[in-house]
Amino acid sequence: MFPPLNEQLDLIKRGAAEIIPEEALAEKIERSIRKSLPLNVKLGCDPSRPDLHLGHSVVLRKLRQFQDLGHTAILIVGDFTGMIGDPSGRNKARPPMTLQETRQNGETYFQQASRILSKDNVSIVYNSEWLGKMHFEEVIKLASKYTVARMLERDDFEKRYHAEAPISVHEFLYPLAQAMDSVAIKADIELGGTDQKFNLLVGRDIQREYGIEPQVILTMPLLVGTDGVEKMSKSLGNYIAITDTPEEMYGKTLSIPDNLIYDYFLLTTDTPGSRLQAIKDQMESGSANPRDLKRELAREIVSLYHNADAANQAEQNFDKVFVRKEAPEDKTVVSRPSDDRKLPLFRILVNIGAAPSSSEATRLIKQGGVSIDSSKTIDPGFTPFSDRSRSSFVLKVGKRKFYEIVFPQQ
Fold this sequence. Notes:
By secondary structure, the protein is α/β, with parallel strands linked by helices. It is built from 17 helices and 11 strands. Helix content is 45%, strand content 12%. The radius of gyration is 25 Å and the shape is globular.
């Protein structure tokens, strides 16, 4: 039923930042094989961020690997803990959410996560099922099992404490509540990013306090975004969403810095180990053109979330638009009345929905993000469509949005 121990460990260790304790992982897998029982592999879902990108995919893909090895994936939607707000990496308290908001976001999270996970051996649970039923007496007993000194060992709490920034008592309850998730489902293994290490370790301690064998924790690196500086985040705009179109996914992947090529192959694709080593060697020796490796990477990523045909088509469209400087076939066609010929460029952008406001349109134009028939303009007041001898113009906004503006024939 299960692959041999060494085969499982090889796959599980791929790309992992840390496994604590590694010897316990081997013991759990050996017992699983011997008893023909799958391990419970836990991943907590943060319902405050329902839109998933490749940064989220790193730990989801690791969970899928456990599924492929025959183990049970348990997705815990933190609808109850979401009302507390995870303080990990925060320099201030996170605004709380309502139970309804966390439930809605949890549903969106799972719909997107299903593009990565198998639906065969997965269990989805909401932690309000047990946390919402705890009496105040039980909460006090839980809180008594951990000290304030231990909580202040956590990096973000320590920084805020020394900076005399407020730390609310309810924030101390978040790691304990997350630990109770591990108690409730009897987690054998818990996955998370490296920023979740403290929370995951608390889970081990609290399981032990409740007489349950402590879980093994496996942390994955935080994926650096396309800017090459910060971890991938929608708020920073340096993300590749798993729901992006093939063209968006392909183009964004080509924009990553060269030094991230290997990490992206390792953490976001199924590239075989032998090919990974070759890529690493080529990058270190300088024997490969980074552009060619990024094109390979982009095809791999698009194929994972769409298919190989979509990846090839996205590459062809990219070459057409950005290499040969031709307009794409799938540009948005917008018909405008003759009177719009008199309008300045910033107003046209707002009218066709290419910018949400006049100020944003003006900013885009001044930053060089708008071209008309392949000619860039930085004058928001320019009236580009006054030439009545032409009935259509191609407008490029940003890196990948194209509009064909069509006027009535004169």
